[in-house]
Design a protein that fits this description.
This protein is mainly alpha-helical. It is built from 4 helices and 2 strands, in the order E-H-H-H-H-E. It has a single domain, classed as Alpha-Beta Complex (Lambda Exonuclease, Chain A).
């Protein structure tokens, strides 16, 4: 019987968080995973598949650390947005670090 997801108590965007992401596909690349072309494999999906295979084989992240102004803004406003969500909904958001599915690392 499969167990539930595994919660890794790491700080977002820390070295440990990036290490947990190595070899895994996250929401930021979901568009590449689901891309469709008439024939063959979409280039974005192929490139992602190769990058993740290299990560698994080497244990090193292929992420280049690219951050644009919108990403910086999102990171800067994340805690305020989380607080606003909790205040407006009444739901407490429990920090969970990085989550891998059942059977994942």
């Amino acid at each position: 019987m499969a167990s539930g997801p595994t919660y890794h108590p790491v700080q977002p965007h820390s070295a440990e968080w990036h290490a947990q992401r190595t070899g895994h596909v996250g929401a930021s690349v979901a568009r590449q995973v689901t891309s469709v072309v008439k024939t063959g494999e979409a280039a974005g999906r192929r490139d992602l598949r190769i990058a993740k295979a290299v990560e698994i084989l080497t244990g090193q992240s292929a992420e280049n650390g690219y951050v644009n102004a919108d990403m910086e803004r999102g990171l800067a406003l994340e805690s305020a947005g989380l607080w606003e969500y909790q205040m407006s909904t009444g739901y407490y958001v429990r920090p969970c670090g990085y989550v891998t599915p059942a059977g994942g690392d």
